[in-house]
Amino acid sequence: MNTQGKVFKYKDNVDTDVIIPARYLNTPVAAELALHCMEDIDKDFVKNVKEGDLIVAGWNFGCGSSREHAPLVIKTCGVSCVIAKSFARIFYRNAINIGLPILECEEAAEEISAGDEVSVNFDTGEINNKTTGKIYTAQPFPPFIQNIIKKGGLLASLKEADNE
Amino acid sequence: MGMTMTQKILAAHAGLDYVSEGQLISAKLDLVLGNDITTPVAVNEFEKAGFDKVFNKDSIAIVLDHFVPNKDIKAAEQSKTCRQFANCQCISHFYDVGKMGIEHALLPEQGVVTAGDCVIGADSHTCTYGALGAFSTGVGSTDMAAGMATGMAWFKVPSAIRFNLTGKLPYNCSGKDVILSIIGNIGVDGALYKSMEFSGDGVQNLSIDDRLCICNMAIEAGAKNGIFPVDEITQAYMTNRCERKPVVFEADKDAKYDKVYEIDLSKIKPTVSCPHLPENTRNAEELHDITIDQVVIGSCTNGRMEDMEAAYKILNGKTVAQNVRCIIIPATMQIYRDCIERGYVTAFIDAGAVVSTPTCGPCLGGYMGILAAGERCISTTNRNFVGRMGHTESEVYLSSPFTAAASALTGFITEYKEVQ
């Protein structure tokens, strides 16, 4: 599986309150919530993001609240992958559970710039910065987690296990 | 090699004699928790996946606390979704308005969590229950849905950082100052993916409320969980309270820790986290030039009885400074009632504060105390991210109830001893 898109770049400790502010959490509807994705740190994100684009960020992406709405709005906006130096643990779990691809790669997260055109191969973990020509390799997921992703999320994988 | 306290609880719930760091396990859950924001998403996932029955109606807790009494029509719809699901599934631990409290104050108080438990909650501050010697961690709504359906969750066994506590806190400090200073020291990802295990002679000098507050903010250091050993104080708290029999786990003597920090509680100072990260800590005494517009005393971090007592001690017979709004929110109906019976509510109102029924409200910028552009609040809550309590140009300073109440009297950041 591959994806390619333009990069939106953010710093360390991007918290789930700025990904989707709690003042909007009076609805569980993803399409409604997605209109406010990142607005507290990047007012133009929703206007500019296109299907397939990527978010690249520093350490501890998705820290704070456990709201699953956070990876959900990022996915609903069309973002195909988040690359960061590290992820906060609940965000990491949630992203896997809802099927938002995420990759940990310190070097790529450091060097890739906003606006770069980047492609990702999820099978190999290869990140290709088409703008600079540099190639990086991210940590692959353990097989257990790969299986959840392959089955289309946690609940789908549970249902399948149930039927076996 | 020995196991940490967390690893032993996880091993027992996975039906294994031994687990080690990094191992992926599937563990049995004693309790699955959700609130009025995260439960509707979980219910949707649960139903979408075709599940029709929860694994055990007595092992699920649904607490309406974030936006109740309903702040608007949309919030009312979310509460309704929770209520219908809870009624339909005969969930025994469903807490609606009148019985509810802020989940992480309510569940220990009501004896729904106990020592040795393995708990997941679709709320990041689920790590609070480590104070009673449980393994307890925050997850998302899909994990909640899976937990409700199967009674199981997958975990990657964490390594641990040990905090060896000695001595006794000064009179003007509480558990909040301990955890803020730890986060200031190790940073907001200082314990990422790890357990924070507290130990040492100093533990006996910390009340249950202090321990609940300390474990509550383990997530603010990125931790998977925070945990205290079970001692006589824990046992006394759990007796005649907990529904299930406590099971006591202890870390092995030869357990391995990634790092050990020595913390002398007597050296802790009143600590404040400045905007916009909990790790930006300063001593309260250095912040006299920070004027404030609002004070919030409450939340899952500091809305318990000892926090109300601290506020009462400082506000009783005094007057909140001009141009300061002081909002006090007891975290559960029991605490609210006790505050009324003890005369605290009268004293708070006489001082010029307002007292609300339990709600998470202002902590996450929901309602009941939203800040305008340029406004500042000193708050006993747990996060001070950009826009957390309102406008993106507002600021939140995190502190203990002592420091927050003292600041309410002066209108600038002030520590307890300065208003005595």
Question: Could you walk me through the main structural features you see in this protein, from its secondary elements to its overall organization?
Answer:
The complex is a heterodimer of chains A (164) and B (420). Chain A is α/β, with parallel strands linked by helices and 164 residues long. Chain A has eight helices and seven strands, in the order E-H-H-H-E-H-E-H-E-H-E-E-E-H-H. In chain A, a hairpin with a 4-residue loop joins strand 6 and strand 7. In chain A, helix 7 (143-151) crosses helix 8. With 420 residues, chain B is of the alpha/beta class. Helices cover 30% and strands 18% of the residues of chain B. Chain B is built from 13 helices and 18 strands. Chain B has helices at 5-14, 38-48, 73-88, 103-109, 141-150, 175-186, 208-216, 232-238, 299-302, 305-315, 333-341, 344-351, 401-410, and strands at residues 24-28, 31-35, 60-63, 93-95, 118-121, 135-138, 152-156, 160-166, 195-199, 225-227, 259-264, 271-273, 281-283, 294-297, 325-328, 354-355, 376-379, 395-398. In chain B, the strands form five sheets. Chain B has a five-stranded parallel sheet with strand order 4-3-2-5-6, covered by helices on one side. In chain B, a hairpin with a 7-residue loop joins strand 12 (271-273) and strand 13 (281-283). Chain B is globular, with a radius of gyration of 20 Å. The mean pLDDT of chain B is 98. Classes of the chains: A alpha/beta (164), B alpha/beta (420). At the A-B interface, helix 4, helix 5 and helix 8 of A face helix 2, helix 3 and helix 5 of B.
